[in-house]
Design goal:
This protein has 186 residues and is an alpha/beta fold. The chain has five helices and six strands, in the order αβαββαβαββα. It has one domain: 3-Layer(aba) Sandwich (Rossmann fold).
Length: 186
């Protein structure tokens, strides 16, 4: 009962803070995309290394990248504050329903990315809300129980899941886009 009430309140609040936008869904790959937004959970230096490599990969393809990290604590650790080109939100930047307050989150959500990539291997309501409210044309994330949030999901297992997810994204996204293009042409 409490869960249902919380869910209804969250849905209403989300629509008020981040009004839904009509976005045409498209499948992009690394050749056709010009902008990408990356969401992730700040966890360790291995995640940072994998994201830095992936961001460099995107920039080599002339894709403008905006990165937003979520730290599941109230204050960012000092070593994380030095990560370059990454904006962060923490639990302190969210209300009791885990809906991000306007500011950095609103700026991120309102950008019309060609690709929105959620690299968080754990589900966080905050990140789910950001994906749900995003104006991105193509939303990509790990295969989890977040049904309906993503246009494309990739199943992840094993160690260093973020790196595995990003490597598989590099491998399969061009194949998926090629298959969608072939299907539409027929």
């Amino acid at each position: 009962m409490l869960r249902k009430v919380r869910s209804n309140i969250t849905r209403r609040k989300l629509h008020k803070k981040f009004p839904p936008k009509s976005v045409e869904r498209k499948i992009f790959d690394f050749e056709t995309a010009s902008t990408a937004g990356i969401l992730y959970h700040v966890s360790d230096s291995e995640t940072e290394l994998a994201l830095n490599e992936f961001t460099a990969f995107l920039k080599q393809r002339n894709i403008s990248v905006t990165t937003l990290g979520y730290f599941h604590g109230k204050n960012l650790p000092q070593d994380i504050k030095t990560w370059k080109d990454i904006r962060f939100i923490t639990r302190k930047d969210c209300d009791w329903l885990r809906i991000p307050n306007p500011g950095v989150a609103r700026d991120f959500v309102e950008k019309e990315f060609d690709l929105l990539i959620n690299c968080s291997m754990r589900r966080f309501r905050v990140l789910d809300h950001l994906v749900q409210c995003s104006a991105a044309a193509c939303k990509i994330g790990p295969d989890s129980s977040s049904t309906g949030l993503f246009d494309i999901t990739i199943r992840v297992s094993g160690d260093n899941q973020v790196r595995f997810f990003l490597e598989n994204l590099k491998r399969y996204l061009p194949l998926i886009n090629r298959q969608c293009t072939l299907t539409q042409a027929e």
